[in-house]
Input
Amino acid sequence: QVQLAESGGGLVQPGGSLRLSCVASGFTFSDYSMSWYRQAPGKEREMVASISSTGTSLSYLDSVRGRFTISRSNADRTVYLQMNSLKPEDTAVYYCKVRRGFPPRDYWGQGTQVTVSS
Output
């Protein structure tokens, strides 16, 4: 079955960097777009970044554009989120997601906590 496993979260000071990873299994990874979402306490889950199956089309939440970079390795079945110049408002649980199947269904990982604080 579809499994997504995030890692790389942690506590970082403002201005610091983290690199999140999401390893996928249970489907043909190279056929699907992948996305990173985040959810802060008391807020709705929001999409942070997405990447097409070939990695040629990227999109970002306005507030992270220029600071975060999404990438993927189809050989390693992994999607990454490089986060630089982190701000306290980036604090959230970060999830990776894939939409697949008919009818389409969203599959989520368990999430990884990112805390930006001094």
